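Example record used in the benchmark description.
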Amino acid sequence: MVLEAGPQEIISYFYGVNIHRKYMLRCLQIAKNGLGTTAPNPMVGCLIVHNSKIIGEGYTSPYGGPHAEVNAINSVADKSLLKDATLYVTLEPCSHFGKTPPCADLIVAHQVGKVVIGLLDPHVKVAGKGIQKLRDAGISVEYGIMEAECREHHRRFLCFHEKGRPYIILKWAQTTDGFIAPERNLRKSNPEPYWITNTYSRQLVHKWRSEEQAILVGTHTVTEDNPKLDVRSWTGKNPLRVVLDREMRLDTGYHVMDGKTPTLMVSDPKHRGKGPKTVTYAFIDFSKNVVGQLCDVLHEHNITSIIVEGGAKTLQSFIATGLWDEARVFTGTTSFKKGLRAPTLSGRLVHTKRVATDTLNIYRND
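Model output (C-alpha cells):
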C-alpha cells in the first residue's frame, strides 16, 4: 500500500512510524522501573503526547497498585489536553476488574484522542477486549508498534500466559575446568564455602534475585550449603524460596525453613501433614515428570518467573526436559581438578560480558 502512494504520503508514513518508535522506546525505558515489583502483573510503560510534547508518563506500580496508564493520566497537569493527545503503552490496556479497575475504562472516561499499543495482551480476560472497548468508544487505536521489542520486554508475563508456566532462568558458576563444586571429601575436611566467582558476580546474582518472583534449589544444595537465598547484598524484595525436598528431610535448622522469607516446599504426598509450619507445602508425584509438575505448581501460585540455582541434578533436569528459557553461566578463574561437573546445555549464546575477573555467558533456549 505504501509503494502505491505518492512521495509525500510515503514521507508521512515513515515519519509517523519513526515517531511511534521514538515514544514506544521511552515507554519500554520507563517500564523497566517496575522490574521485581509488579509481578504477577506485567511491568508496563505508558506516556501521553500532545502536540509533539510528552505531557505525562507512568509505569506499573508494585502489585496491587495503579497500572501504568493510570499513573500516566494522573501525571497530566491539564486533563483537558487528553482528548487531543496520543497515549502510548507497551501492552494492551486491561478491560477487566482485578486489584484495580480497567485501564480501558479510564482512557474512555477521559476521551483520549488516540491510543498506540506495542503488544496485544494474551491474558484470557483481555486478549483484544481492551482494544475493542476503546474502539467502541470512538477512540483511534493502533497496535503492533515495536512488537518484537515489547515481546522481549514482557517475556515473563507472556511465558506465563502463553505457555502456562513461569519464565525459567537457570544460573550456575563453574570453574575453568568445568566443575561447580569440589569433591565431597574436600568439603568434609574443610566445610568453608568454595567461592568460584568474585564478590561483584555474587552481588549481581543478588540483584537478579530481586528481579524475579521465585528462586529454586534442591535438597542437596540446602544440606551442603545452607543458603539463605535472599537479596542481602542488594536492595529489593526477597524472592519466594522454592525447595524440592522429596523425603521432607529439612528441618528448621536450615535458613530456608526459618520463616523469615516465604518458602514453598515441594514434597511427596506421603508426607502430607508433616513438616515444620514455617513453610508452605505443595505435593507432586516424583515418579513422573517432576519439572512439568513443578511448573504446574508454580503456575497455580501465580509465579511468572523463577531462577533455578541448583544443584547440578536439578539444573540438568530442567535442561533435559527443555523447560528453560534463559541460562546465566559464570566462569571464574579457579580450578578444582576434581569434583561435581557443571551442567551441559545447548542453547543460543546471546551475550558475553566480563564481571571483573569472571566471564558471564547468557544463553537462550529458542
